[in-house]
Design goal:
294 residues; alpha+beta; Jelly Rolls; seven-stranded antiparallel sheet; four-stranded antiparallel sheet; 15 strands; binds 2-oxoglutaric acid
């Protein structure tokens, strides 16, 4: 039997998301987490990440902001580090353990880290894409999201297509793999089911070359009725498939448990136009790799 059933497909089409238990074994989850621990142990913290805005004069502040923005916008074909707020002191030293300091690592683990690459292209993931009828899916980006205890921040309500825009819409899907139990206490995802069918409220676009900031938004951030969100806890090893237009969010982690996740986005590339205005662009170094590999 397929790992993803017809019923799962129906639920995904109807609600804009579906949970599939048991994509990975506990051991596979632990191996991915251990590899990330090693990466973080060895990371070189970029200087602009270490400095605190408040210690800067205007010109320095501008350079600092540009450094941060550039670090983000050129991260599509690299493995880079994005920190939680307030993890460095005025001298740029960690005030929390470095393993607890990160919000996420992105955006090309799927290309450069063999364990992550293997999971991304695994037969089960390829089977899910086939079950959903994807003909030429490619991998857009990948992230390890930490949501560390006590410090892991909230992710405000959004639609992924705001950041990963295609024409037509409906071509992008997030694959969100829980490497630990994700619960209401440690910051699981929440969804408004069915919102994938109403288009998107805003887009993040690149600004013209040579201008700052490097990205801007078109359209307004929408507010949503809190009561409409449904929590979606997931067991370690389970996966959530996220339609590119469904509204979702996650709360801050006020618990004592981390909520580590490996996530990546797939796009059906057949008859799809990837917007040149998106922050993320394929590069010579890393064109979007096809999902279907042997
Ligand atoms: O992992 C999270 O808390 C949020 C992830 C998310 O919203 C996304 O990847 O689109």
């Amino acid at each position: 039997m397929d790992f993803m059933t017809d019923r799962d497909v129906q639920k995904y089409m109807q609600d804009g998301y579906v949970v599939l238990d048991g994509l990975l074994s506990a051991q596979e989850c632990d191996e991915l987490r251990q590899r990330m621990t090693d990466i973080v142990d060895q990371m070189d913290v970029p200087q602009h990440c270490r400095t605190t805005f408040s210690t800067y004069h205007d010109e320095q502040l501008k350079t600092q902001l540009q450094g941060n923005a550039d670090y983000f916008i050129t991260s599509g074909d690299k493995i880079r580090f994005f920190f939680e707020k307030g993890v460095f002191d005025d001298k740029g030293e960690f005030i929390v353990p470095r393993q607890r300091s990160l919000n996420k690592v992105g955006h090309a683990l799927h290309a450069y880290e063999p364990l992550y690459k293997k999971v991304t292209h695994s037969p089960r993931i390829q089977g899910i894409a086939k079950k959903l009828g994807l003909v030429s899916p490619v991998i857009l980006q990948s992230m390890f999201i930490f949501k560390q205890p006590g410090i892991g921040g909230e992710v405000t309500p959004h639609q992924d297509a705001t950041f990963l825009y295609t024409e037509p819409l409906g071509r992008v899907m997030g694959v969100w793999i829980a490497l630990e139990d994700a619960t209401v206490n440690n910051g699981c995802l929440w969804f408004i089911p069915g919102t994938q069918n109403s288009g998107i409220s805003r887009r993040m676009v690149r600004t013209p070359p040579g201008t700052f900031p490097l990205t801007d938004f078109i359209g307004r951030e929408q507010t949503y009725d809190d009561e409409k969100f449904i929590p979606v806890p997931v067991k370690k090893g389970g996966v959530v498939l996220i339609h590119g237009e469904v509204v979702h969010r996650s709360a801050e982690n006020t618990s004592e448990e981390s909520r580590h996740v490996y996530t990546f986005h797939i796009m059906e590339s057949q008859d799809t136009r990837w917007s040149p205005d998106n922050w993320l662009q394929p590069t010579e170094e890393l064109p979007f790799p096809p999902l279907y590999t042997k």
